[in-house]
Amino acid sequence: MRSFTYERAVAAQAAVAAAARDGAKFISGGTNLLDLMKLGIERPTHLVDISRLPLRDIEELPGGGLRIGAQAPNSDVAADIRVRTRYPVLTQALVSGASGQLRNKASTGGNLVQRTRCPYFYDTAAACNKREPGAGCAAIGGYNRTHAVLGAGSSCIATHPSDMAVALTALEAEIELLGPGASVRRVGIADFYRLPGDTPHIETVLRPAEMITSVLLPPPPPGRQLYRKVRDRASYEFALVSVAAVVSAGQGTIDSARVALGGVATVPWRAVEAEAALRGRPATTATYRAAAEAAMRDAVGQGHNDFKIELARRTLCRTLAQAAQPVRSG
Amino acid sequence: MITGRALNRVDGPLKVTGRATYAYEQWEAGRPLYGVVVGATIGKGRITRIETAGAERAPGVRMVLTHRNAPAQGPRDESVQFEYWRAQPVLTGPDVRHHGEPVAFVVATTFEQARGAAGLVRVEYAEGRGRFDFAAHEAEAYVPEVVNAGLPADTAVGDFAAGFAGAPVRIDRRYTTPYAFSMPMEPHACLAEPRGEDLVVHVSCQIVDAAWASVAATLGIAPERVHIVSPYVGGGFGSKLGVHAETILAALAARELRRPVKVALTRQQLFQLVGLRPTSSQRVRLGAGRDGRLAAIAHDVTMHTSPDVEYAEQTAATSRSLYAAPHRATSHRLTPLDLPRGADVRAPGEAPGLLAVESAMDELADALGMDPVELRIRNEPDVDPERGVPYSDRHLVDCLREGARRFGWKHRPATPASVREGRWLVGYGMSAAIRGHFQGPTAVRVRLEPDGTAVVRTDMTDLGTGTYTILTQVAADGLGLPPDRVRTELGRSGYPRSWGSGGSWGAANSATAADRACAALRGQLLDAARSDPRSPLYGSAPADAVFADGRVRVGDASEALDEIVRRHHPEGLEAVGETAFMGDDPNYAAYSIHTYGAHFAEVGVDADTAEVRLRRMLGVFSVGRVLNPKTARSQLIGGMIWGLGAALEEEAVVDPRSGAFVTRDLANYLIPVHADVPDVEAVILDGHDARANPLGAKGIGELGICGAGAAIANAVYNATGVRVRDFPITLEKLLPGLPVDV
Amino acid sequence: MSDSVTRAVGRSRDEGDRLTTVTLHVNHQERRLAVDPRTSLLDALREQLRLGGTKKGCDHGQCGACTVLVNGRRVNSCLTLAVMHEGDDVVTIEGLGDPGDLHPLQAAFVECDGFQCGYCTPGQIVSAVGMLGEVAAGWPSHATADVADPRIALTDEEIRERMSGNLCRCAAYPNIVAAIRGAAAGGPG
Lengths: 330, 742, 189
Hints:
The complex is a heterotrimer of chains A (330), B (742) and C (189).
Chain A: E1 5-8, H1 12-19, E2 24-27, H2 33-38, E3 46-49, E4 58-60, E5 66-69, H3 74-79, H4 81-86, H5 88-95, H6 100-105, H7 108-112, H8 164-170, E6 174-179, E7 183-188, H9 189-192, E8 211-217, E9 224-230, E10 241-250, E11 253-262, E12 269-270, H10 272-278, H11 285-295, H12 307-323
Helix pairs in contact in A: 5-8, 10-11, 11-12
Chain B: H1 12-16, E1 33-39, E2 45-51, H2 53-57, E3 61-66, E4 95-96, E5 102-108, H3 111-118, E6 122-127, H4 134-137, E7 146-147, E8 151-152, E9 155-157, H5 160-165, E10 169-177, E11 189-195, E12 198-203, H6 208-219, E13 226-229, H7 245-257, E14 261-264, H8 270-273, E15 280-288, E16 294-305, E17 327-336, H9 350-368, H10 372-378, H11 396-407, E18 420-421, E19 424-436, E20 442-448, E21 454-457, H12 467-479, E22 486-489, H13 506-530, E23 546-548, E24 551-554, E25 557-560, H14 561-568, E26 573-579, H15 586-590, E27 594-606, E28 612-622, H16 629-648, E29 679-684, H17 708-720, H18 731-734
Parallel strand pairs in B: 1-14, 12-13, 16-17, 21-22, 28-29
Antiparallel strand pairs in B: 1-5, 2-4, 2-6, 3-5, 7-8, 9-17, 10-15, 11-12, 11-14, 15-16, 18-19, 19-27, 20-21, 20-26, 23-24, 24-25, 27-28
Chain C: H1 2-15, E1 20-26, E2 29-35, H2 41-48, E3 67-70, E4 73-76, E5 89-91, H3 104-112, H4 121-136, H5 156-162, H6 173-184
Parallel strand pairs in C: 1-5
Antiparallel strand pairs in C: 1-2, 3-4, 3-5
Helix pairs in contact in C: 3-6
């Protein structure tokens, strides 16, 4: 880890100003940034500590939504009774990720911008376009069991690791950003992440020194919410496949559905084709299968991860079937 | 008797309060310098240029060692009998033999400075063509002269080919097991501290005597100048049998700089520098009659080895003593690859070998339509089928029957893939367990102080195995003292030499030696008292003496031990007990001495995703006499959970293009976590193996893992009808065979 | 702790790395430290305060051996910088009990043999303290059937899921769960 200078930000605007410095980076929970700094993958020369900014609260929004401060730890969000009752898919996603200790430290904003866990990204001796643009991608043609089958390109096949972001994708969350000069903008989560294309090192639409201040949850969509995570061991592991589903079914017909996938794509993946294949169709296995087929139609395996395509289909089918069950009363 | 009781660990209060000090946590030498190891970023080739100026100029840096300036070291000497006692020189030249091999070592005032400067060392390489791909080179294997533990590479009895050809039911399958790592929770660490011409080496190691010899030989200094200290060891599982680069580099730097230097490997470096379980390809052939009796067994194993340091895991040896069959053959072959060296990982041989053989036995039971427990009972041998000698104390069938009864084996689904509970496909599986028991030279000194307390000393280590506790128990019984009047001190060279902890021999060796030391002490005490007119025991008959409650009693007369000691030996009285190398103990030639067990597992397999989750597991074991049932059970359970890891999770993957392990941390090399482990129980049968040693105790530390993975694998087959022969059983290997209709 | 500050600052003049002063409340004692900004909380505890009970198992948040309580919450001390903890309360294993005066969880670990080598043990115990607080506060986990239900029953399944961030290679898991279950119920395990 190379030397850096450190400052603790006392106000959001000051933090953004400080981060405009060359080589500066925000640090919040630090659970991913320090991991990467120890390995020489992130090499900031100045750290702006934003963990004590007054951005930890979870507040009601007019109309029934919630505003989650970017510094709210993952644990707090998961345990918030409003999140648990109105957005259970978010709580389920959060508690399926990492460990109790990490969730106590990791912030909402930090979770969104965490980097991939591709082992070649983590190995500075291996070629990685994300780490070193133009260097090549060792995962292509390498050991790629955990890699993406959707949204990948010839420059990068690394998955986005977040569970939380998959749930937020299904919930159509918005992300509020504060930039230099007190500029504030909101970006829908679907527009926040960038596909790797030829620039896999640019992962989001964040501009230089721009800081995530909060995540806005619109009023909960109708229907039952479910997060299902598939992995090798029973806990403390990133997803091989995950599904966030919100399905509203009545009278044997699916009225509406939101579906997002994790562990299979280079970004948190909204399965719009699956949603289209569900809407207005009978709540039957055939419909779920058709939706799963649609979701994975463009999937491309890289060898070791070929299984993810069928695994995602099967996980989707089962999760949709569960989510489409009538909501219990009480 | 204190021995045999479930005494709590005597080192427990220190460990649960964080007061037990491991190698890196010693402060008596003052503030040390910090070392960081820089590893090669190629798998094979040569360093062409190494630029250290930037690192040397960095703040706080005291030294940068490379092959150009490393002190001369003794060569690895193959005339020394065991690898772990040999010199282990590092930074010896520009050649790179495997990915991560040390190319530089940076020492600085603080850890942050050393780590920062390590990132400034620039190395250029001429990359060579390495051999990294086991499958591609498997056919190029050679025959080793011997395999691990000095066993023959190949054995044959009868005529396997004829016996197999003539068998009405035949199984002929290939199983593969991955590279696997010990991964103790404490990374390998050393604090080397110069004291005048002497060097005190605080090191996390399993065998103090080996560390002592290896450090002295590598540094080329007189052994009496080297002092090894290893009171607490944060797990070893084979990877700390010898010392590695961290210890040698810390010692070299400490000598050069005349300052204490400490080094801990990073978790990632554990995947490069401390050895690994070789990958294996195992062909198992079983030929049986329709009654299930085996006519022929063959177990042929090919593994990788480092070209520089041969390591041949005794993976087929497990088949030599397990089942009866008139025609049998085993073989071991090695394929050199440019990877880190193979080395002992918990239950070397049995762990991968039984995964294969006990899976094959399940396949045979399936082919015969026979209960797998019954198949094993039917093949119980009368004598060791290869050596022709009797077993010392074999209770495999008892383990099988008791385990089947306790587990409810009769409820096993008779047809694979026939039981479904909600989303789970449910299956039962079982396996037999066997492991050879070894004995090695170990000495223990027991000293009785004038205050009536006893001190047990040996250079034996406690890796969590319970040595502190069992030696306290044995000595308490041996001298008739309450355990709180016995103190056990371990892990220092200069204490009587032991074979250390490894091979599951530590408890039996050190407990037997301690028991003998106590017997010698009792004799001395009694002689002193009986010949002393001032003693109430003057002239009494020694045969009737009873040592209890801190006194020796003959009939109605008695005297306190501390009084005898004070009167006759005011400085204290001590005696040394020893065990012999098994080759010098006639029992080990006359008998086949093993431990045994039977594992039973129930798994659930998600019908949609093929995720496998263990639901419950039981092991029943026969290990001779149990010195402490609490610590014994813990070790057995721990081993069983290692079996779970081997069956379902643990796999280190090499990128055949670079020779680097891709799965190089604890997020990618998966070991079981709490949530993977439901009810796991171990039951130990009462026993006493008088042929093993006078205490009747045998090894426990590795038996739990033996066969445990196969029981889980067989349960997965029972649940799904899918047989996976390529370990670990991850979901993508099951998925294609699961029912489509979800 | 003025001694350690003086020593550290003196070193910085020689060695050229800028140090930052930070005040921590460790095990209810105020400790003033001069640290390199790169120093993790874990290394500050182990190497500067010489509180070796908090262990370094992986240094990357993948094993839990370094678990401490910061302001009452369990965290991985390897993945946070010491300078970020100005004024924070830190409790390490040394702050829970002494060999002669064990915390109930420590006593339960001894009684249930919830460890072998002992290296992950401080992290397991500190994690368990934090975990039981989270359960008492009604936090849900991946093992909670209905995350909307504010009442959490401390089942073995809940303990296992919530403790999964603490690896134990000796695999004392069943005994650790028994110790936590017992201590939580008010017994010795």
